[in-house]
């Protein structure tokens, strides 16, 4: 049976983005240069009932949920554990473990954490983050190798199609959202703090 977003997985922009070819995030790069994305992405089906989480820009949970890049619960828990061990913020650790330079979305890019439940099976790419590189307006290069920040296998999900509001409504249910404060490391997602 086909998933609700199967056709999005085949689109050229999805294949390019998952391979690290989103040049809108890297305006100083040439269109044929790859950075970020997933190393050796593999296609998977996310089962109904799966809990997925995504960081984004507060205060609009629906806007955060419209993005393509997600973590399942087990991989999100690794972000929390690593943040606790290192004493840093959850959002900062997620940036490192997922390979998201601060130039991609700026400092305000990870101020809300949204948890959703998958209502219908979804197609996705899954895998370890690839090295991400960005150049800021001053020509300073930032390079993040996600493999340096986890103790074992850490994988992220690329779920295309959630930008379509009708598909998103049919595919996922937002079960909670919370603000991520600067320097936060221990609280993670807690239902008591969600709306």
Written overview of the protein:
This protein has six helices and nine strands; from the N terminus they run ααββαβααβββββαβ. The protein has helices at 6-9, 12-18, 61-65, 73-86, 90-98, 165-171; strands at 42-46, 51-56, 69-72, 112-118, 122-127, 132-135, 141-144, 156-158, 172-179. Helix 4 (73-86) packs across helix 5. It is globular, with a radius of gyration of 16 Å. 41% of the residues are buried.
Which key phrases capture this entry?
195 residues, alpha+beta, 7-stranded antiparallel β-sheet, two-stranded antiparallel ribbon, 6 helices, 9 strands, disordered C terminus
Q: What is the structure about, briefly put?
A:
Helix content is 24%, strand content 24%.
- Uncertain runs are 185-195
Strand order of the largest sheet: 1-5-8-3-2-4-9
The termini sit apart by: 34 Å
Computed CA radius of gyration, to the nearest angstrom: 16 Å
Overall geometry comes to globular
**Major sheet, described briefly?**
7 strands, antiparallel
Total helix count? 6
What are the SSEs and their pairings?
Layout: H1 6-9, H2 12-18, E1 42-46, E2 51-56, H3 61-65, E3 69-72, H4 73-86, H5 90-98, E4 112-118, E5 122-127, E6 132-135, E7 141-144, E8 156-158, H6 165-171, E9 172-179
Antiparallel strand pairs: 1-5, 2-3, 2-4, 3-8, 4-9, 5-8, 6-7
Helix pairs in contact: 4-5
